[in-house]
What we know:
Elements: E1 2-3, E2 7-8, H1 10-15, H2 19-22, H3 25-123
Antiparallel strand pairs: 1-2
Amino acid sequence: MINENMGPSEEEKQTEPPKILTKPLPQILDEIEGSIRAINEATKLASAAAKDARQAAEEARQAGEKAASEASKVAIESIARIEDIANAAKKMAELVGLAVADAAASAQKRLTEQESIIESKKKGKP
């Protein structure tokens, strides 16, 4: 009787003849040879799969490096454009500042002239 946890009982082990005694030697050798062929084929397939995996990994590495390089190039170009825009904005702000200062000086000059005219009129001078 077979116990699921223990395997065949001692009694059954003694009554079953070993397989090597029940099959002819040529058949056993054929089975061994078939197993060896299957192992060789599996080894070849595993080797090919490993080669493909290495190639895929290399291609992925190269693609990653290329993507990183492209991203770096785009980032550098974007930074350069932003720096150009910032420099142009700074120059524009300086020009606006100069224009405001010039307008303020001109307005101050006109106010001074108007005050002089008003003072002259108050004193009776034309």
